[in-house]
Design brief:
- With 124 residues, the chain is mainly alpha-helical.
- Helices cover 53% and strands 8% of the residues.
- It is built from 5 helices and 2 strands, in the order H-E-E-H-H-H-H.
- It has a two-stranded antiparallel sheet.
- Helix 1 packs parallel to helix 5 and helix 3 packs across helix 4.
- The chain is globular and about 45 Å long.
Length: 124
């Protein structure tokens, strides 16, 4: 009998699956922040995981971003914000902003069943 995976273990399993899905979805698109084209991209979050855990696996919040912008450019969110509105549209941008406010205010905790569903959803 195998022990059920914890939510933390499922998050660790889901993260690379989701990141790969984001990179595949955004293949051929420019970096969301600087607009440059790069062969290797990260899956960059607009609202950071540290303060907005509920948006960690939200495809409106995560887009292909060059490694320089995602890892080393403190001002990358300026370009990200401008390009995000255009990429997902005003309605989805405002909905994402509302979800961020809700999660910041109320917190969010992924359940194991939800995480298993997301793993199945984003597997390529």
């Amino acid at each position: 009998m195998t022990k059920a995976k914890t939510a933390g273990q499922l998050i660790k399993k889901l993260q690379p699956i989701f990141n790969r899905w984001i990179r595949e979805r955004d293949k051929g698109k420019p970096c969301i922040s600087c607009g440059g084209y790069f062969e290797e991209m990260d899956a960059g979050h607009f609202y950071p995981v540290s303060g907005y855990s509920g948006l960690r696996f939200d495809p409106d919040n995560v887009h292909a971003e060059c490694r320089k912008c995602n890892r080393f450019d403190e001002s990358h969110l300026i370009g990200y914000a401008e390009n995000l509105r255009e990429r997902i549209g005003e309605t989805d941008y405002l909905a994402l902003k509302q979800r961020a406010e809700d999660y910041k205010k109320n917190g969010y905790k992924f359940g194991r069943a939800e995480l298993r569903e997301l793993i199945d959803k984003y597997k390529l």
